[in-house]
Specification:
It is a single chain. The protein contains 4 helices and 7 strands; from the N terminus they run βββββββαααα. The chain is an alpha+beta fold. It has 2 domains: 93 residues, Immunoglobulin-like (Sandwich), CATH 2.60.40; 83 residues, no CATH class. A 4-stranded antiparallel β-sheet has the order 4-3-6-7. A 3-stranded antiparallel β-sheet has the order 1-2-5, with no helix packed on it. Helix 2 crosses helix 4. 19% of the residues are buried.
């Protein structure tokens, strides 16, 4: 007979409008009224019904960011805490903390895609690749820190990646290429 083992997986949706959470639990009996509590950065907690044994999708309306029937908006990047629980006991729950970076990743992807289309010389184009690799490193570091409960470090790395990416987008092709020539050529 299976035993109760609660687990959820926050899976990528590759969509800044959606948060996807899959039930990876095993149940001894079918739970009654399972819920998920999601702490959305800058918006607080929302408690929602959770469908077992499937993939649950949440958007700005279901998370209480936008009113019912209003246009959906992108979910904010930041640290999310998800707590999946089943009745009858408050001890039957699992909690996960994740760093959502979908908006920053979309901006990074756009900058990356423009790189091959730019009319720059080799040193500047190569410098741009070095800059984007550095930004990507900071994004991945932020995700790794959040996955290991180092939330302050995750926030610092995310903010640094965002600052660097904003600067890259604003000033791209105005660089001299000297960093690449001096350090890598």
């Amino acid at each position: 007979m299976p035993t109760l083992n609660l687990d959820i997986l926050v899976l990528p949706t590759y969509n800044k409008m959606l948060l996807g959470v899959a039930d990876a639990s095993t149940y001894a009996t079918t739970p009654v009224n399972p819920t998920i509590e999601i702490n959305v950065p800058s918006f607080g907690n929302v408690v929602l019904p959770f469908t077992i044994n499937t993939y649950n999708l949440f958007n700005s309306e279901t998370l209480g960011i936008t009113a019912s029937g209003a246009a959906l908006v992108p979910l904010p990047d930041g640290i999310y805490t998800l707590k999946y629980s089943i009745a009858p006991s408050a001890t039957n729950y699992v909690e996960k903390t994740i760093l959502r970076v979908d908006q920053l990743q979309e901006k990074f992807d756009e900058a990356f895609m423009k790189l091959d289309m730019m009319e720059c010389d080799k040193a500047i184009k190569t410098q741009s690749k070095v800059d984007l690799n550095t930004i990507y490193f900071f994004i991945q570091g932020a995700i790794a820190a959040a996955n290991n409960c180092a939330l302050e470090t995750a926030t610092t790395l995310y903010n640094q990646a965002q600052k660097m990416l904003n600067n890259f987008v604003k000033n791209n092709c105005n660089c001299s290429g000297n960093n690449y020539v001096i350090n890598f050529y």
